[in-house]
Amino acid sequence: MFNWFQRLLPHKGDFFGMFEAHAGTLVAGAAAMQKLVDGGTPHMEHIAEIEEREHEADDITRKVLTEVRRTFLTPFDRGAITSLIGAMDDAIDEMHSAAVGIDLYDLRVFPPEMKEMAAMISDAAKLTSEAAHLLRDIGHNGARIHVITGKIVGLEGAADDVHAAGLKKAFVEYSDKPMQFIIAREIYKHLERITDAFEDVANEIDGIVVDHA
């Protein structure tokens, strides 16, 4: 009976393709975020781009979760698959939250520290995409993946330093404008959460490499 039921289940889902596709939304969303805080280009277009990529990422995440339930043989543990796609989705969700905040407060000018954090986010997204492609052959690519995840974790640490410096600068600059400081703190918080999410992605990928390399 179990063998008959097993034959009804697909033996392999394209999880690698879905990871790569989701990573593509991260790269595109992060690029739009960087353009948004750089200024000088259409403001609402970049916000709309981030929102569109977030919707695409949600669709991919739902497909991954469906395939995990339907697929009998997965490339690695089901828990690792769902944890990784969940961490990746958190990253694009945090980008969307940042874009919503920027739209809400109608920010058009951003300090250098925010621009620097956005550049780090873009770098982290590109590294994540590279790592996602390398997951197809963990045994051969394990060492390279570990280097990449180390770089992502390093970016998160550097972003923490930039975040602290920017917040301190905003506190001094807006000492007589408390609302402006609150807004700046809110956007910095969102940007920091994006880098935190990418660190989580790196840790999930590292865990997969340790278990399967």
Main traits of this protein?
213 residues; mainly alpha; Methane Monooxygenase Hydroxylase, Chain G, domain 1; 7 helices; elongated; disordered N terminus
Please explain how this structure is put together.
This protein is 85% helix and 0% strand. It is an all-alpha fold and 213 residues long. It contains seven helices and no strands. The chain has helices at 2-8, 15-38, 43-70, 78-104, 112-134, 138-173, 178-212. It has one domain (13-212): Methane Monooxygenase Hydroxylase, Chain G, domain 1. The model is unreliable at 1-11 (pLDDT under 50).
Task: Summarize this structure briefly.
With 213 residues, this protein is mainly α.
Radius of gyration over C-alpha positions, nearest whole angstrom: 19 Å
Helix content: over 70%
The count of domains is 1
- What is the name of the CATH class? Mainly Alpha
Number of helices: 7
What proportion of the residues form beta strands (DSSP E)?
Answer: under 5%
Largest sheet: none
The topology string of helices and strands comes to HHHHHHH
Q: N- to C-terminal separation?
A: 34 Å
**Overall residue-averaged pLDDT value:** 92
CATH superfamily: Phosphate transport system protein phou homolog 2, domain 2
What is the global morphology? elongated
Helix/strand/pairing category: mainly alpha
Low-confidence stretches: 1-11
* CATH third-tier fold name: Methane Monooxygenase Hydroxylase, Chain G, domain 1
Please tell me the CATH architecture by its name.
Up-down Bundle
According to DSSP, the number of beta strands is: 0
